[in-house]
Amino acid sequence: MKIQVTINGREIPLERRIVLTGEGMYMAGRLLYFVLKTLHQMPRLYGVVESDPISGWKRNFETKFASIMSSHLEPGKIRLEGEFKLNLGKFLVSGKVSRGQMKVNVELVQKPENVSQGLRGMVEVDSFYFSDLERPRPFFVPGSKDGFLAGFHRFLVLQTESASGIPKTLGMVSEFINSIVLPQGYTTSVRGRTLSTDEKEGLFLDGEPLYNVDPELLSLLSLRLSLDMAPEGSVLIVEDPEAHLSPETVEEVRRWFDRFRGSVVFVSRFNTFGGEEIRL
What we know:
Blueprint: E1 4-7, E2 10-12, E3 18-21, H1 25-41, H2 53-73, E4 82-87, E5 91-98, E6 101-108, H3 118-130, E7 138-141, H4 145-151, H5 172-177, E8 187-190, E9 193-198, E10 202-205, E11 208-209, H6 215-229, E12 235-239, H7 247-259, E13 263-267, E14 276-279
Parallel strand pairs: 3-13, 3-14, 7-12, 12-13
Antiparallel strand pairs: 1-2, 1-4, 4-5, 5-6, 8-9, 9-10, 10-11
Helix pairs in contact: 1-2, 2-3, 4-6, 6-7
């Protein structure tokens, strides 16, 4: 089944294009991003033998989910406030984040029968819950995407000997930049202009470093790179997608989103690209 996500009491139907709006839209969009990212990164849970494999699996899921999500929030001092629920078919995950503290609870809607004891039982339970679990990968595009792209373009090229990207201590900036790291030799064309990579210098547009490019084109490039790097079936969460875009450019970007084979959640006060509005 398609996962059902509820953020701060409002269901977010990922199978449709959504616009989060209202005073709590940014907090809700970021909470949605980290909840989906944590779910996507959840490992299999059969490594620790429990006397009761079913209750042990439930307890391990709660602990691991909270641990992974905290590992994303703490380095960059990302402060989230809110509640979330995930309906994953066979089980439900609910949680609350407040003042740096996190609580996670799992409710098992269905339970496997005739479970063995020991490690074999843990494998059976884990396979029962993970076998058809949908875990879409989320991508995040911040409202200040043009400035971040210009400022950190040197870190966007995959290096041969050292790690690419930027550290988690930069918070939401790192979530954006590290999701669009490009392979060496990458090129793409936007409005007849060529974006290319240089191993040492970063990204160039027709030979010009990105910090010389105007805000509208930088915003276009940010959206284009995010769409290119997000695989089919992923969830793209975009803050203020209309920022710095002229009416003509909006139509161009609209066509990009129409071709995207994944879910799109806009976080904006304006329903520029169409979608079901959810007020928070």
